[in-house]
Queue: 2 jobs
Job 1
Amino acid sequence: MAGGLALDAGGAFASALAYGYTTGELVGRAFLACAVVAGCYGAYVLVGSFLVRRTADKVERHKLRSVLRLCAVLVGTVAVLGVVTDRWVPALVSLGVAGFAVTFALQQPLLSLFGWVYVMVKEPYEVGDRIAIDGATGDVIDVDVLVTTLWEVDGGLVASNQPSGRHITVPNSVVLATGVTNFSRESFPYVWNEVSVQVAYETDLDFATEQMRAVAGELLGDEMARGVADYREQLAETPVELEVNERPSVNVEPEGTFVTLRLRYLVPPKRGQRTKNELYRRILERFNEHPERVAFPVGRNR
């Protein structure tokens, strides 16, 4: 039976005749198989539409579609075997035996399928998250049964955390063998970022750092405070002990002929570059209003 299933269409026809089916019965079963396939597809569309309408979250809708698609394929396969042959149970067993013979050839697809199950259950990332995996960084736009598709960020074509326009497909098996960096997980969709400004040693450092904190507080203060409060709650559930500032802070680092002031703040990763640009603009404007208190390194001193 397994040999007959593995043959081409002509071999399958001959095998079916060998089981005693007449030509009329074969045609009838073929039409019935087509009807079963159409019915499974229709059920998939109807159930999918019903569940999608009841689910507002687009990430959950994507998961439901992926799971329903796999279930429809499995149910359709068993149903077609059931109507094509009266011996569908032995046929399934034979397919299972044959499956062992091709396992080595399908190792990567099978691992990717297991990886998809892992992503669905453990949720190391979801559609819409910005992640780094297997040397690639980007926003997840699709998680299929076999591959995850990213909208690339940076990637050598551009910088400053901007999309490059390229799509990257990563086998789901990678998630089982390498680490995943998630920059925008729903439970804490923030990252710490820094803006560095170089000033001369003649600068009033207390004044400069205070101005940088004030500018960042005006732009990010309340949102950052809420984000840090969430972070502290999650941190309290772990054995890790850290001191986390709920407001922007500035670190001072002397570097040879100038001093670097590093403003540290919390921001959603997809707004990182836009926020950095705005902070630079406001900080430089504020510093230029007080040239007697803030000096910049010039010439070869920088």
Job 2
Amino acid sequence: MAKEAGDEKIILITNDDGITSPGIAALVESVKHLGKVVVVAPDRPQSGMGHAITIGQPLRLHPSKLFGDIEAWQCTGTPVDCVKLAVDKVLHRKPDMCLSGINHGPNHSINVIYSGTMSAALEAAIEGIPSIGLSLLDYSVEADFSGAQQYAALLAEQVLHKHFDKHLCLNVNIPAVPAELLQGFKVCKQAYAKYQEEFAERKDPTGKNYYWLTGEFVNFDKGQDTDVWALEHNYVSVVPVQFDLTHYQLKEKLEKSLKH
């Protein structure tokens, strides 16, 4: 489509829980007053896909009427595929902003590495589209998104109308508490935390072994400047993230130690 007349902003919305999830419907509803919303989202849940892309099999887009008059497409691919296809085949231009979510469940700390929600947002940032990934700390399909909607709208408006870097990507997590108990935004760093994982060994009905991933989340970072701390204290955590994985301090040390 051609660039819209006037100053109307184009907002691309995607997710990893699938186009039918309550979270994406809540996000659409919360920001549709800010500009022209276009939804391109997976046709089924894609949680934990990370930055996967589809290679070696066709991708398909099908129109959806789930959001009334809002243009929406469901995609057979991953969250990252959705962003790529949206730019190239649906919008035929870069949107002014990309929102990914609202995810059912947290994407704080190490979760950002595995998250399809955040990978979609990072893909947009790679393409020079300011982006926000949003996650509510509630896995339930009956989760209350009212607080998340309020803060999503506030932050999206800021990103749309202030001149942030075009590669901006924010990882935003919202505690699962009533909106009136939320303490506001807290800009913080990603906590050093991980899952202590185990694979439970079980047998299927035919007697063959299979494995089921289990584990416990462990936070090793006790600082008060982390996303985990902020969420435990009912703040909406905002972590600026980037796709440049270079360890610059180590780079400097290696340059000195590896000189001939």
